[in-house]
Amino acid sequence: MEASLYILIPLSVALVIVIAALFWWSLRSGQFDDLEGPAFRVLMEDDSKPEIDTAKEQLKE
């Protein structure tokens, strides 16, 4: 049982360090800068026609 603690404790500390480093990188690279933009972008209408519809119209002509 004690042998497993010698493996699990350093492993958990290493995992915490990796997670903290990934979180720090995401903060520094701007991953959390615009949290509301994508939510509003879904609701905005797209004025252009999809390419599939325009291709079908060209085939009909």
TrEMBL record:
Domain of life: Bacteria
Pfam families: FixS
Transmembrane segments: 6-25
Database matches in InterPro entries: Cyt_oxidase_maturation_cbb3
NCBIfam families membership: ccoS
Organism this protein belongs to: Candidatus Dactylopiibacterium carminicum
Presence of the UniProt keyword Nucleotide-binding in the record: no
Protein name: Cbb3-type cytochrome oxidase assembly protein CcoS
Keyword terms of this UniProt record: Membrane, Transmembrane, Transmembrane helix
